[in-house]
Amino acid sequence: MATIFTKIIEKEISADILFEDERVLAFRDINPQAPIHFLVIPKKPIATANDISQEDEALVGYMHRVAAKVAKDLGADKHGFRTVMNCNEHGGQTVYHIHLHVLAGKPLGWPPYTENLKVN
User: Fold this and answer.
1) Among 37, 97, 99, 101, which one carries the catalytic annotation?
2) Rounded to two decimals, what is the model's pTM?
3) Domain ranges across the chain
4) What CATH number was assigned to the domain covering residues 4-116?
5) Along the 120 residues of the chain, how does pLDDT read in single tens digits?
6) Contacting residues for 68 by C-beta, under 8 A, at least 6 apart
7) 90 annotated active-site
């Protein structure tokens, strides 16, 4: 099934592309959650993290290498960045084509729900 990411890969929808080769595409998120927020997607359609096969292991590892390269290109390597891959509805996935969120440009803190924790 075609997704918005398929349409970006096929250039039917424009995106602010930061990196592209025959395997992956990296582009800025249209709803950024940090000063630097981009996505790295495989050109091979894989619906969720649950669908990553042994055959896809190198591709998913490559997505992380591209994330680090683009983060460095944007100056986010020195202070650091976060990578997140959501899976299914409860995991926050909204587009069913795996994608790696890369967030940087401010202290991100962890966990984001710290204020709700009770520590004894």
Assistant:
1) 99
2) 0.89
3) 4-116
4) 3.30.428.10
5) 789 999 999 999 999 999 999 999 999 999 999 999 999 999 999 999 999 999 999 999 999 999 999 999 999 999 999 999 999 999 999 999 999 999 999 988 765 555 554 544
6) 77
7) no
